[in-house]
Amino acid sequence: MKTFLMAVSIVAFMTASAFAMNVGGSYNTSEGDLTLNQNGDRIFGRYTKDNGEITGLLYDSTLDGFWIEDISDRRCSSSKNGRYYWGRISLEFSGNGFSGSWGYCNDSPSRQWTGSRVGGKASGFDTDKFARDDVADSIEGVWSSSEGDISLSQNGSRVRGNYNPQDNGEITGTIKGSTLSSYWIENHSSQRCSSPKNGRYYWGTLKLTFNGDRFSGQWGYCDEQPSRSWTGQRK
User: Fold this and answer.
1) Could you give all domains of the chain from N- to C-terminal order, each with its CATH number?
2) pTM for the model
């Protein structure tokens, strides 16, 4: 991620219904019966085909992640969770199910995957309780940092903002306790990812831990583990 060039400008927040998606539960799908478990924005699942496993992150109503199986039509050159048969998924959820796509290894997802929820429509989170239980002090405000001045807005557990207008930079994520787990997304950066995030191929993960008027953390390119330092303090 390139160093921030200008102070951050904040966009309007999503309404509670936009980010209160609960996708946990059982589904009948085109790839077999699927059970999903949810912890905040992290999704884990199992499906019946070839001891299938799903792992990923929920961004608004979109799950970006991976499928992993014991065997499939293509063996990847590297392993995922100890197995060589895997690929990317991008699934869009509504209250009654999902539609989306999957691909082999690091291919962009292009093969259809659909599912319907068993037992009816999903319920939303109690967003007020979610904010009370999982969010400590508000991180909303302007911060000076090793990546330039930034400004954050917060609605319950959700944090979102814009930065660097030249590259249309975007930050979006979830804070639990004092830790913000997030994505940065730009029009351009030093490394192009193999799959898009929010329609763009320049993105990465971000994890910041806040302690009073200071924070420290890391960022990385694409799906790599964050390892590049990012620190700051409230202005």
Assistant:
1) 21-117 (no CATH), 126-234 (2.40.128)
2) 0.50
